[in-house]
Amino acid sequence: MKEECLICEAPLVYLKTDEIMECAVCHKKENSKARCAKGHYVCNECHTKGMDAIIALCLKETSKNPVRIVKKLMDQPFCHMHGPEHHVMVGAALLTAYKNAGGNIELRQALIEMMNRGKSVPGGACGFWGACGAGISTGMFISIISNSTPLAVEPFGLSHLMTSKALEQIGVVGGPRCCKRDSFLSILAAIDFVEQHFQISMEKTETVCSYSAQNNQCIGKRCPFSGDWLH
């Protein structure tokens, strides 16, 4: 199989409690529950190096289909099979498709805000917080397009409803984690939610995953995006 540790490709190990880890790339020390079986740790910042390209890529995009947009982002060098980059990419793809479908937002500023918010959700949130970062990213998307704040009324509620619907879809399928699967589930939930509550119709087509060979924990036919090629 493919990628696990970005340094040596050894399997990842998730700990029950935080330990002080030193990043094998930048040597920064911080608390984490994740390292590889050989002891390597890569911090979120180093793991997502190059992710700033998302903004430029999305500003050039003309598609109204957020799944197609996120797949283009997933195929960029900065994106790994799993990782916190997905916590930004989901919302960025939705913002871009929303704008292209007629949504009234200033896209560049929205993408910058999405980058700042999404990067604050660490890797492993899916397993340790009970809230996948891809699902949370949809709530961030809604909060941005609705100008939500902690003091807002309807936007506050809509943002939470969106996150809950995305997380429900992720929870129904279950684990182990797959950042690609959870991203697709979250985006598809957001497409329906936006049409219902904002009357903006983003494009929605059948989604088939092409990343299974890179995922050591792929759930195969249990995945709703497995496609006939897995059967």
Helical coverage, percent range: 40-55%
Characterize the overall form: globular
Tally of alpha and pi helices: 9
* pLDDT < 50 runs, ≥5 residues: none
Going across the biggest sheet, name each strand in turn: 1-2
Kindly estimate the percentage of residues that lie in beta strands according to DSSP.
5-15%
Overall number of strands: 2
Q: From the helix content, strand content and strand pairing, which structural class follows?
A: mainly alpha
The termini sit apart by: 19 Å
Summarize the structure.
The chain has 231 residues and is mainly alpha-helical. It is 45% helix and 8% strand.
List the helices and strands and how they pair.
Layout: E1 12-22, E2 29-36, H1 44-47, H2 53-60, H3 66-74, H4 86-100, H5 107-118, H6 125-128, H7 133-145, H8 154-173, H9 179-198
Antiparallel strand pairs: 1-2
Helix pairs in contact: 2-4, 2-5, 3-4, 3-9, 4-5, 4-7, 4-9, 5-7, 7-8, 7-9, 8-9
Mind explaining what this structure looks like?
The protein is mainly α. The chain is built from nine helices and two strands, in the order E-E-H-H-H-H-H-H-H-H-H. Strands 1-2 form a two-stranded antiparallel ribbon. A hairpin with a 6-residue loop joins strand 1 and strand 2. Helix 2 runs antiparallel to helix 5, helix 4 runs antiparallel to helix 5 and helix 4 runs parallel beside helix 7. The longest helix has 20 residues. It starts with 11 loop residues before the first strand and ends in a 33-residue tail after the last helix.
